[in-house]
Amino acid sequence: MKRVLAVAVLLCLQAMAGTSHADSRLYGDPTSSSSLVASNRSVSGVSSDVVVRKDRGTSVRHERVTYSRGGSKSFNSLPVGSYSNGCLINGIQANSNAPYYQLYHPQNNRHFGDITLLNFLDRYSRAVHKAGIESVLVGDMSSRYGGPFNKGHASHQIGLDVDIEFSLRRLPKSKLETKGNAVLLVDRGAMTVNSNFNRKYYDMLMIAAHDPEVERIFVNPAIKVAMCDMTKDEREQPYLRKIRPWFGHAEHFHVRLKCPAGAVNCVRQDKPEPRYSIAQEKEEALSWFEPKQEVKPAQVKPADLAARLASAKPKPKQGFPEQCSIYYQSMNVSVPVKKSTRR
Ligand SMILES: [Zn+2]
What we know:
The protein is of the alpha+beta class. It has helices at 2-17, 115-130, 173-176, 199-210, 221-230, 237-242, 278-286, 302-311, 322-330, and strands at 34-43, 46-55, 78-82, 85-89, 92-93, 101-103, 112-113, 136-138, 152-153, 161-165, 186-187, 192-193, 214-219, 243-245, 252-257, 340-342.
């Protein structure tokens, strides 16, 4: 079984890594009520187009200005590179006194994000609160400069990923720094949701999926199956589609935002192929539990193989984006050695 899971994870890692392309977006976002002002600034040799976002109608406003070095001018946050290979220029620290969300394990210093992620947390936690959920428990986001972690996540590198713990209530402060306070929703042996799973968790996930800036959400396949069973209206299928099955994710779900407008060096991820019905969504989630067929190695003639190996070109290694190296140098920090084990 272990091997089967490893193969499934590997296949999915390959699929998720996807091939993406840099997006030179226009300034402007038709789905948002914000006005966007373009400006061009230089961060210690990193010249980048940035966008100042002024949200109308939100009572909490995050300007992109919280981080400054040595009293110098402050700059806007900017995601650079891909979700699993990049950095976050001038990441903004999430609010530790927000009315409707709390930061889980603040001692780990992993609550930095792009302005769009901070705005998402405000917007999302308010929406969830309105739906009768007391508070959102915010797990890991990115580290201060983004980039790889020395332990843990493979992604979370550019300030657009956040883990949201399964929890409906506000925790006492003393519990925020300790482990084991999120709610487990999956019966790992039976590969189904357990009795903790209820409509509120469904709402929590669907509210996130309906947010126009959310690109995709990762949950345990058992949770995806349960959500398919609970969804009766086929018009919800495109939102269910954003909710992607992934092992782990039994005590939290992972929200990934789109590359924001103006972040020209943010590498977009390809959209998951569309499925057209809830039944197909369920079928796909269930396939995570199927044992994979054993593949017999193909027989190749040794001479044939030698010729093919001789003509093969080595794939170029994907390096750390140059803008990120420049930024790290200017901040006097070194790139952590990657020993990542999970999303
Ligand atoms: Zn995550």
